[in-house]
Amino acid sequence: METSSRRKFLVSALGMIGAAFAGVAAYPVFRYLSPPAMDKDKGRVSISRAQVGVGQAYFFQFQGHPAVVLQKTPGVFVAFSAICTHLGCIIKWLPEKEEFLCPCHAGRYATDGKVLGGPPPKPLPTIPVALSGDNLLVG
Amino acid sequence: MELGRKIADYIDARLGIRDILEQNLTKYLLPRNINVWYTLGAVLLTLFALQIGTGILLLVYYNPTVDEAFHSVQRIMNEVPFGWLIRTVHAVGANIIILALLLHMLSVLFMGSYKAPREFNWLAGFFLFLLSLGMCLTGYLLPWSQLSFWATTVATSSSQEIPLVGDLAIRFLRGGAMVGQPTLGRFFALHVIGFPLLFGLLVLAHLFCVRRVGISRPPFGPDWHPAEPPARFHHEEHRGGIPFFPHYVAKDAAIIAFFLALLLGVVFFAPGLFFPPTAFEPADPFVTPKGIKPEWYFLWAYQTLKIFPSEFLGLAVQGVAVTLLLLLPFLDRSPERRPAKRPFFVVAFLLGIALFIALSVWGHYS
C-alpha cells in the first residue's frame, strides 16, 4: 500500500515536472510561429493618384491582404477589400460593365461594393480613402 | 480513466503493443555493472531530435539564396520572436553533438566494445560520425556570412589536392569555380534532406545492431573474462541484470538533463562562444577576412594540413588515420577488452587524444 502510494506520488510529480518543461519549451515555439501582430497605423498605404485613372481600378496589398481602389468619377475614390466574400477568391474589375466580378463562382459587385448577383453572402468590406496632395491615403 | 483503459485494451488486443513495450523496456535487461558512458547513445538521440526540431523551425523563415540567406538569418535572430533561441540552440547543439559523439566513440574504444561480434555497430556509428561532420560543414555555409563563405572556400579548396580528380572534385563540391549560389543550393539540399535521410537510416541500422547483438558488458570486475566471438549468431543476454525501464532510463534521463543544461548554459550565458565577429558580416567574395579558422572539431585537420609541406601529404595522412579508425574492429581482433590488459592500445588511445587536443590548440593559436 505504502509502495503503491509512493509510486503514485512519484509518477504524478514527474508528470507535473514534465508538463511544466513541455510548457516552457512550447511557448517559444508558439511565439516563433505566430504571425506578426498587425499595426493598424503602419498598415496605411499611400498610392499616387496618377496610378488610378477615372473608371479604373488599382490593386494593392493592404495590411497583408489584396485590396482595390477605384476612381468612380473624377475625384471620387472608393477602396475595398479585393477578397470575394463567398469563398475568398480575388475579384477583378470589368471597366466595360463598371462592376467587379469574382472569376471563381461569378459573384458580381457594384462600384459601392454591394452584391449585384451570384453567391456572395455580403458586400465587399470598404476601406477609408483620403486625398493628400497628389497621393491617396488608404486605411 | 476507465474509457482510456478500454481504448488501450482494444488497441492492445489487436497490435500487442504492451508485449513490445515489456520486451523492450521492463524485460530488457542490461548488465549489472553498466556504467554512465552507456547513456551517451540516448543523449545523442535526444540532441539529434532537438536538431531536427529546431532545423524545421529555422526552415520556416530561412531563404537559401545568396541575396537573402544572410538577411533571413538576421531576421530570425533579431525580429522573429524567440528566433535567437531557436537558432542558437541549433548552432550550439551541433557543437554539443560533436562533443557527445567524440565521448561516445572514446568510451567504445576504451572498453573495446567495437570488437567482434559488434563490428557492424562500430561501422554504422563511425559513418554516423562522418555524416554528422558533413552536416556541420554544410550547415556552416547556410548563414552566408563572411565566416561561412570563407570557411567553406578553404574547406572545399583542400579537395583540389586529390590526385587526378582534384579539379573535378572541387568544381563538383562547389557547383562552379567559386563558392556561390550553386554551392549554397547543394549544401542546403544536403543539409536539410540528403544527409538527414541517410542519417535516419544509419541510426536505425545502428540501433538494430545494438539491440540484435545485445549490449556489451563493461569489461570490468573480477568475473569478466575474454571469450572468443561465437561462430554463429548469438544474442548476448544479461540474466539477473537491471531492467532498462525504469532503472537505466532514469540514468539516461539524468545524463540527458546534464547535456541539455550544458547546451542551455552556453545558449544563455555564452551565446557568442561559437560566433566570431565574422559570423555577423554578410559574405563578400572580394574581401577575405583575417584569420579564418574552422570550427574546433576541424582544427586538428586544419593544423595537419599546415604542418605537412604538401597539402596532398596532409590529406593522405588524415585519410589513413580515418581509414584505420574505421577498420579498427577488423585489425584489432583480440577478444581481450579489459583496458588494463591492453597497455599498447591504451597508450595509443591516450596519445591519440593528446595529439587531437595539441593539434587543435595549435591550430587555434597558429
Explained architecture:
The complex is a heterodimer of chains A (139) and B (366). Chain A is an alpha+beta fold and 139 residues long. Chain A is 23% helix and 35% strand. Chain A has one helix at 2-33, and strands spanning 45-48, 57-62, 65-73, 76-81, 92-94, 99-102, 107-109, 115-117, 126-127, 129-132, 135-138. A four-stranded antiparallel beta sheet of chain A has the order 2-3-4-9, with no helix packed on it. Chain A has a four-stranded antiparallel beta sheet with strand order 5-6-7-8, with no helix packed on it. A three-stranded antiparallel beta sheet of chain A has the order 1-11-10, with no helix packed on it. In chain A, strand 5 and strand 6 (99-102) form a beta hairpin. The model of chain A has no long low-confidence stretch (mean pLDDT 91). Chain B has a domain at 31-219 and 238-300: Cytochrome Bc1 Complex, Chain C (Up-down Bundle), CATH 1.20.810. Chain B starts with a helix and ends with a helix. Classes of the chains: A alpha+beta (139), B mainly alpha (366).
